[in-house]
């Protein structure tokens, strides 16, 4: 009785989706052209490999964030989580020197702990949002503060430094290359492929999309909403721990300023990539492009004197707003057709 | 009856109004005239076009053709409820109040009284208090809407309308969710408004009510205007006849006899859940069991509890004679039980997705090959479903939200049937769909039962319960009040059980 009929039918969605999908790729190509025209060294092998390595951290975290956001959640705690994990990893490895020595075993122990910590932290976020029925924004805002203060506490307000000998063992994970590509880039590639498969080709990915699109429908469709949502946070945690594992050997230290604002960069990469912030539609490919775009902007600014490097944040902010505005513009057109 | 002269002059008039949604015509050249100071009932079966007509009269929809006259002048009503400014107010069935705000804030929403640029709370409060007293409603102006009962919320809507000097008040099934006592209060208020010269249009399925309160009655059937009669001149039977009109045998498939000795596949003993107490019934293989009752009688709750969508607070569920405790909806599905929700948009389909993911969502584990999803199998399933359920989409890539209600319902049926259940619970199988699709749905239900699937049909539409079910269980206020079989399944009997006039001992 209440539902008399559906809205007038709409058409012409095909075009819109093409624009949406290609948008981030076009933006990245444009940025590369700009970068090359400002300084041909931009496309040099050294710079490209540097750019890719840099984007690996945000990229890996953003792939996790794609799952969380697609399923209708949000995780603000990733930057602090990375710092806390890095801190604990360093403490564990330093204290294992006496028993395990400074070899590969200690590094593996650190990495193992990092993964457990990441998954555990994600599980906490997930359970508090689903079983505790607290909004994800609030939960992760809370854990963000907790993790950030924990790392400050562990470092006693200063910096936690990795034992010098272990640093030597661990160093290649960040600095070495494999088949011409730095190892962090390989990790990024593997995480991307697994993430893409998981989101687009498995029942789990379909469930994430369904939950983000309409939780009620998901529940009535025999989907275990709570456990799927918790899983997305655990995937996010795992991604954070992987990013931390390749980040720690870079500086060999952790402090209260480690990973600051990573959460915003990760979310920005996801949104620039075309994933819808309120959930229901996620694109891993877009997220990867989003992370590359963000890193490329910083890189170009480093290369040229045209705009001060201090305006990096301004450029990133503008790109985010423009990206979302473009997506919104499409919806506006669709509505106009409907009327 | 009023003998006011103005009674004969129409205040709001629909003249040859037609309306189609997309390619689906809903109203065909309908006429309706509303006079000041009259109570005008609009009756008809579900899907007859009553809601659409009301929305056109209040400007929420624009007619595809035809004229609307207000005080004799042809006008086009402003959209989105702006017709309120002209004194034409529609009270939706799903009420339109800001839940977190107070009664007073809601009533003055958008035209708050101010003094020196600051809200004049005292003045507003005293005005609202006056209105509430006038209506005999014992709530505080500072009560939060979310703390009120549905009946009270409805009264607040009416106060809101009065406070905006409504001249035409249009109400969509205002009494559907009210108890008898609340209905009494409500009608007293309606009569008061009538005395003030307000024209009141309302939809109701309760014909006795219609006869009692209204001056004139307009009957719609399948989008056609059947007639407008003085309430004094028509009997209840005549009303029903005009509403139904067509040969029912055309709409419903021939009934197959149910096998009374078939195995019991589902049995409830003393089941309780929120708002439901002590429910007992048996469902046999190949049986079509109807669940009737007023909205809010607890029918949906019973089956949501069985399907692990709502906690069971007491009693036992037996499937194939064995007691079961389902931990999740997935476990229910794997046991061969499927529930098809009445809330297609919020619980049934992902409106922003295409047909394929919607179709397979409920039974997705079936489509897993190795680690990934077998999209080719999904495509095949969609092809099959489109053929089996006659889903008509111009474009297989259409977003589900852009499909007609009838096709959405067919897709929802297909989605649920994809899990190949042995027991299907269909909640309001034909809500918001046209007559042609209804007929297909009924034939489908009957065919399922013939294949040995047990079907539960929960419906508020009596003709459909009577037309397709072997046996009917009637619920009232969370309890089963009666059970009817064969020739005993009549509208009259069902109503008596549903209204609490008659009740059976425990089965």
From TrEMBL, chain A:
The chain crosses the membrane at residues 21-39, 51-69, 76-97, 103-124, 136-155, 178-199, 230-248, 284-301, 307-326. It is a multi-pass membrane protein. GO terms for cellular component: plasma membrane. Signal peptide: none annotated. Keywords: Cell membrane, Membrane, Transmembrane, Transmembrane helix. It is found in: Cell membrane. GO terms for molecular function: transmembrane transporter activity. InterPro entries: ABC_transp_permease. The keyword Lipoprotein does not apply. This is Monosaccharide ABC transporter membrane protein, CUT2 family. It comes from Shimia gijangensis. The lineage of its organism: Bacteria, Pseudomonadati, Pseudomonadota, Alphaproteobacteria, Rhodobacterales.
Automatic annotation (TrEMBL), chain B:
It is a peripheral membrane protein. Residues 12-247, 255-502 form the ABC transporter domain. InterPro entries: AAA+_ATPase, ABC_carbohydrate_import_ATPase, ABC_transporter-like_ATP-bd, ABC_transporter-like_CS, P-loop_NTPase. Keywords: ATP-binding, Cell membrane, Membrane, Nucleotide-binding, Repeat, Sugar transport, Translocase, Transport. GO terms for cellular component: plasma membrane. PROSITE patterns: ABC_TRANSPORTER_1, ABC_TRANSPORTER_2. Gene3D superfamilies: P-loop containing nucleotide triphosphate hydrolases. It is found in: Cell membrane. CDD domains: ABC_Carb_Monos_I (cd03216), ABC_Carb_Monos_II (cd03215). Its main location: membrane. GO terms for molecular function: ATP binding; ATP hydrolysis activity. This is Monosaccharide ABC transporter ATP-binding protein, CUT2 family. It comes from Shimia gijangensis.
């Amino acid at each position: 009785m209440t539902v008399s009929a559906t809205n007038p039918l709409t058409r012409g969605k095909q075009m819109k989706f093409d624009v949406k999908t290609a948008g981030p790729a076009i933006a990245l190509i444009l940025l590369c052209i700009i970068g090359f025209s400002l300084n041909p060294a931009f496309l040099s092998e050294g710079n490209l490999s540097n750019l890719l390595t840099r984007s690996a951290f945000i990229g890996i975290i953003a792939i996790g964030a794609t799952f969380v956001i697609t399923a209708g959640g949000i995780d603000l705690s990733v930057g602090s989580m990375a710092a806390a994990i890095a801190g604990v990893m360093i403490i564990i490895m330093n204290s294992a020197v006496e028993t395990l020595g400074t070899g590969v075993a200690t590094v593996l122990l650190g990495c193992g702990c990092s993964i457990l910590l990441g998954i555990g932290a994600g599980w906490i976020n997930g359970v508090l949002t689903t079983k505790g029925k607290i909004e994800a924004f609030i939960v992760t805002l809370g854990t963000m503060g907790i993790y950030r203060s924990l790392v400050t506490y562990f470092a006693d307000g200063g910096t936690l430094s990795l034992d010098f000998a272990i640093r030597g063992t661990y160093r290649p994970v960040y600095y070495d290359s494999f088949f011409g590509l730095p190892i962090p880039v390989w990790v990024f590639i593997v995480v991307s492929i697994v993430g893409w498969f998981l989101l687009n080709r498995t029942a789990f990915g379909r469930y994430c999309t369904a939950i983000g699109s309409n939780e009620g429908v998901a529940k009535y469709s025999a989907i275990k909403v709570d456990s799927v949502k918790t899983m997305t946070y655990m995937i996010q945690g795992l991604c954070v721990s992987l990013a931390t594992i390749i980040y720690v050997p870079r500086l060999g230290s952790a402090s209260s300023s480690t990973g600051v604002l990573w959460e915003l960069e990760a979310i920005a990469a996801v949104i620039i990539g075309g994933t819808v912030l309120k959930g229901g539609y996620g694109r891993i490919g877009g997220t990867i492009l989003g992370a590359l775009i963000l890193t490329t902007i910083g890189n170009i600014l480093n290369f040229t004197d045209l705009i001060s490097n201090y305006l990096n944040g301004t450029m990133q902010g503008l790109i985010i707003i423009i990206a979302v505005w473009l997506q919104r513009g499409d919806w506006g057109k669709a509505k106009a057709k409907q009327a | 009856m009023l003998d006011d002269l103005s009674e004969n002059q129409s205040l709001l008039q629909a003249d040859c109004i037609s309306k189609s949604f997309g390619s689906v015509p809903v109203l065909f050249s309908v006429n309706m005239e509303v006079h000041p100071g009259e109570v005008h009932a609009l009756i008809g079966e579900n899907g007859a076009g009553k809601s659409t007509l009301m929305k056109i009269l209040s400007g929420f929809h624009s007619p595809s053709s035809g004229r609307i006259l207000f005080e004799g002048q042809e006008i086009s009503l402003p959209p989105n409820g702006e017709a309120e400014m002209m004194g034409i107010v529609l009270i939706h069935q799903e009420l339109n109040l800001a839940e977190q705000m107070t009664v007073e804030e809601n009533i003055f929403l958008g035209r708050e009284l101010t003094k020196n640029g600051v809200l004049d709370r005292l003045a507003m409060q005293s005005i609202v208090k006056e209105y509430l007293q006038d209506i005999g409603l014992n709530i505080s102006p500072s009560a939060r809407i979310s703390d009120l009962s549905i009946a009270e919320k409805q009264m607040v809507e009416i106060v809101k309308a009065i406070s905006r000097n409504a001249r035409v008040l249009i109400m969509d099934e205002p009494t559907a969710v009210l108890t008898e006592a609340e209905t009494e209060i409500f009608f007293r208020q309606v009569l008061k408004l009538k005395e003030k010269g307000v024209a009141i249009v309302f939809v109701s399925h309760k014909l006795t009510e219609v006869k009692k309160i209204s001056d004139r009655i307009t009957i719609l059937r399948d989008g056609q205007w059947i007639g407008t009669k003085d309430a004094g001149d028509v009997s209840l039977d005549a009303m029903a006849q005009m509403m139904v009109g067509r040969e029912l045998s055309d709409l419903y498939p021939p009934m197959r006899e149910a096998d009374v000795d078939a195995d019991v596949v589902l049995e409830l003993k003393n089941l309780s859940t929120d708002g439901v107490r002590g429910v007992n019934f048996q469902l046999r293989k190949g049986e079509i069991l109807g669940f009737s009752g007023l909205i809010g009688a607890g029918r949906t709750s019973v089956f949501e509890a069985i399907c692990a969508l709502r906690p069971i607070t007491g009693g036992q569920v037996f499937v194939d004679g064995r007691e079961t405790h389902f931990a999740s909806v997935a476990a229910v599905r794997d046991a061969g039980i499927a529930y098809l929700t009445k809330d297609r948009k919020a619980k049934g389909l992902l409106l922003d997705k295409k047909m394929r993911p919607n179709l397979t969502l409920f039974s997705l584990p079936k489509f897993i090959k190795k680690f990934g999803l077998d999209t080719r199998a999904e495509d095949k399933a969609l092809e099959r479903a489109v053929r089996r359920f006659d889903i008509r989409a111009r474009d297989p890539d259409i977003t589900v939200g852009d499909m007609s209600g009838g096709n959405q319902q067919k897709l929802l049926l297909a989605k649920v049937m994809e899990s190949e259940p042995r027991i299907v619970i269909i909640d309001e199988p034909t809500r918001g769909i046209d007559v042609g699709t209804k007929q297909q749905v009924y034939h489908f239900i009957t065919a399922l039962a013939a294949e040995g699937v047990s079907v539960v049909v929960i419906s508020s539409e009596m003709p459909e319960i009577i037309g397709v079910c072997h046996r009917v269980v009637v619920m009232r206020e969370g309890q089963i009040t009666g059970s009817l079989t064969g020739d005993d399944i009549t509208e009259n009997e069902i109503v008596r059980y549903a209204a609490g006039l008659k009740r059976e001992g425990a089965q």
